[in-house]
């Protein structure tokens, strides 16, 4: 039986190369983070302490409290609500992450795979905050939205989960609006120059 191949959510719209302003360095660089493992987990009633202990034992990191993220062994946990986290992994691609979480956290948390339902892009560059500010109603100043900070919000009327990783911002949107999101971003970044690079 042939194995289904995962497809990029932006392959048909995010053409690699320079978009908008063509002279000088690009103000923003975009890269789709394909083949990530994406999952949500929600603590079960009365299991908060046990869940945190199990996550620390399995992944070497405490679950973050509030809208921040924490990186463990191959997994980033992003706080998205009380007792709820969004998990991201490069080493446990696609549904492998949800399977791993469900096995190691059995009875402590409800786990759902989101790998085929979300698109994740990484944007960075000297003008990235100016571009994102056109659609995000949150303060991205480094003194406010520091490394690891996260927010569940809207960008140009589309739901988005955003977290900061060093000087880059990762944004997760529902796959069904990925094309519209990219169209907005390309237009917002046109005056600064947008480089679309090969997906990771």
TrEMBL record:
<feature type="region of interest" description="Disordered">
    <location>
        <begin position="1"/>
        <end position="27"/>
    </location>
</feature>
<protein>
    <submittedName>
        <fullName>Sarcosine oxidase gamma subunit</fullName>
        <ecNumber>1.5.3.1</ecNumber>
    </submittedName>
</protein>
<dbReference type="InterPro" id="IPR007375">
    <property type="entry name" value="SoxG"/>
</dbReference>
<dbReference type="InterPro" id="IPR027266">
    <property type="entry name" value="TrmE/GcvT-like"/>
</dbReference>
<dbReference type="Pfam" id="PF04268">
    <property type="entry name" value="SoxG"/>
</dbReference>
<dbReference type="GO" id="GO:0008115">
    <property type="term" value="F:sarcosine oxidase activity"/>
</dbReference>
<keyword id="KW-0560">Oxidoreductase</keyword>
């Amino acid at each position: 039986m042939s194995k289904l191949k995962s497809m990029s959510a932006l392959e048909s719209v995010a053409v690699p190369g320079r978009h908008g302003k063509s002279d000088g360095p690009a103000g923003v660089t975009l890269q789709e983070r394909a083949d990530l493992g994406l999952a949500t987990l929600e603590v079960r009633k009365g299991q908060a302490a046990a869940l945190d202990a199990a996550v620390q034992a399995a992944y070497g990191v405490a679950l973050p409290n509030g809208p921040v993220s924490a990186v463990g062994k191959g997994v980033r946990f992003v706080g998205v609500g009380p007792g709820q986290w969004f998990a991201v992994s490069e080493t446990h691609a696609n549904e492998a992450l949800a399977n791993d979480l469900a096995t190691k956290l059995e009875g402590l948390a409800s786990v759902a795979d989101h790998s085929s339902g979300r698109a994740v892009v990484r944007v960075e560059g000297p003008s990235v905050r100016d571009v994102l500010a056109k659609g995000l109603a949150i303060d991205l100043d480094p003194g406010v939205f520091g490394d690891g900070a996260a927010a569940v919000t809207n960008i140009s009327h589309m739901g988005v989960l955003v977290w900061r990783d060093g000087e880059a911002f990762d944004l997760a949107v529902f796959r069904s609006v990925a094309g519209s999101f990219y169209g907005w971003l390309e237009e917002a970044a046109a005056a600064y120059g947008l480089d679309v690079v090969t997906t990771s």
